[in-house]
Amino acid sequence: MKKWTVVSVMSAAMFASTAYAGGHLSCQLHAAEGSALEGQPKVTEFLWSTANGAANPTGPIATSIGVIDQGKAVGSLALDSAPIQLPPELGGLVHFGQAYDYGNRVALAYLVERAEDSSALPSQVVLMLDKTGRVIASDLIPGDAEPAPGQCRLIN
Q1: CA distance 116 to 118
Q2: What's the rounded Cα separation, in Å, for the pair 111 and 95?
Q3: Can you name the residues that pair with 79 across neighbouring β-strands?
Q4: What string of pLDDT tens digits covers the 156 residues of the chain?
């Protein structure tokens, strides 16, 4: 039984390291390198939530995989009006960020106010969506924490 557990853990670790070799997704976007990030992306800035009302929200993001917008439920995202299944720790009120369109994949880097965050210290989320809207990689820097080794701040 223990042997299968070790094999399973090792297999999962090998898959994770080969899927996005070269560090956390946030640093891959920052450096624009890595096998999953070939080519120059089209970068679009977005603003979805404003606390002070000084700026107007930009609305949905048109990408090569479809239109990405806030979902119907608070803290959710949608692709062409269909909900995107986010890992639970990534859900929250999206403030602003950038979309990196690579053609058949889109990365989103944004500040989000999760239940465990304060509005003064939102978390940074970076996620990669495939053409079906499935999250294939993600990276989280909690609002009250410094980036871990290999993580990069993309949104200030």
Answers
A1: 7
A2: 6
A3: 68, 82
A4: 444 333 333 333 333 333 444 578 998 887 764 445 667 899 999 999 876 666 788 999 999 999 999 998 888 999 999 999 999 999 999 999 999 999 999 999 999 999 999 888 999 999 999 999 999 999 999 999 999 999 999 997
Identify whether 153 is part of a domain.
no
The residue to which tokens 């603003």 are assigned: 47
In total, how many domains does the chain have? 1
pTM here is: 0.80
Task: Examine residue 91 and state whether it is found in any structural domain, yes or no.
Answer: yes
Give residue 59's domain range: 23-141
Closest by CA to 147, choosing from 42, 155, 41, is 155
